Amino acid sequence: MREAQPLNRRGLLVGTAAMTLLSACGGGGGGGSFSSGGSSSSSSSSSSSSSSSSSSSSSSSSLPDPSTAPALKTHFAANFKIGMAADPAITSQSPSNALLLKHASSITAESVMKADPIGVSEGVYNFTQADALVSFCQTNGIALRGHNLVWHQTAPNWFFAGNTADPGYKALVTARLQKYITDVVTHFKGQVYCWDVVNECTGEDASSNYRTSSPWYTALGPDYIEIALRAAYAADPTVALFINDYSTEDPAKRARLMAIVDDLQKKGAPLNGIGHQLHISTSYPTAAAVDQALKDVEARSLINHVTELDISIYNDPASCYTGASGCLAQINTGTSAFTAAMQAQALQYRALYTVFAAHSSVKSVTTWGIADNHTWLDTYPVTRTNYPLLFDTSGNPKSAFWAIVDPSFTP
Ligand code: GLA
User: Fold this and answer.
1) Residue 210: is its pLDDT beyond 80?
2) Which atom of ligand 1 is nearest to the CA of 108?
3) What is the DSSP letter of 83?
4) What is the dihedral sign for C-alpha 67, 102, 303, 309?
5) How would you class 327 by CB atoms within 10 Å of its CB: exposed for 0-12, middle for 13-18, buried for 19 or more?
6) CA distance 296 to 253
7) Is 380's C-beta closer than 6 angstroms to any atom of ligand 1?
8) Is the bond preceding residue 64 a cis peptide, omega within 30 degrees?
């Protein structure tokens, strides 16, 4: 299930930061190096595999044999958890099942832990799908990120029912929010290692630090963020609490988010970390911009999670996101444009993982999906096949995979 996204989700970024990818590839992360565990393949081992080149969407005919691919969760064990977004149905499908079992040390629910499937009505919950994911994680020793408690796109109307002119209205909505969070966090206590308590609360432009169009903001003003964090902490003081947002690498948007964080910290609200979604593209942002975002969070004594990473092969103009016009045309497999896109994507992935590994504050890095056979970017911002992940449509490691596990691999 996919929710409609904010129209200008990434247009702002693409329009304002057209630095070349190559300038980002030097690392930008203060000399970060890859963890060494598990990596044995190199580009020179190439050739033998016919499976990677014959199977679908991998671009290069010289990728290493897939059977030599190290498990990401082992390779990066000294750095951070390796996460993948999934819903219960996909966990048993091919190639997702094998990839999750081999590579993932963390799973994020793509949709089944959001308030619209779970919060049926006031005090009535449907945990069936979410519990199935919990069960898959527990059976296979995979940690689970809680995602998410409060988000404007998945806020059922019953939270806001009532007469907004009534003097008791704010208290009524506050009580519903507190009860929902208390019940849900209590239900999953001991089963998730963190919660994205509030998703996407930051303002879209300079007019406000806050997303004022959120029904939560409309009902409660900015206080809803603190109310949610305190309720989550009260229900489970041991689980790590996050605010999760996109475009955190954009200095202007991040300044607004950091102002929200500063205010929360001044008030003593419980907050452990910031989630950086990183729905990005091959040419934006630079690794240096991401590095700065991680540093700004560290300066506030918080930890970093990369929560929804995917790297679109389309470097669309802003208009594609603000009005779905000017979106780039489909790039087909087997073309030189596709080969170039896979190379640029691999270099972008490498630059970013170099930065992530250079920060001990980065505790978890999650891709928004598992393999290219299942990605929300096939329908957003327009319907067009995309290939944003580390594994191709058949589940074979792409250039991007080899680029992050093997510094000697040349994409
Ligand atoms: C946002 C949400 C995610 C997911 C993605 C893409 O980033 O945080 O839960 O819905 O959009 O669909």
Assistant:
1) yes
2) 9
3) E
4) positive
5) middle
6) 12
7) no
8) no
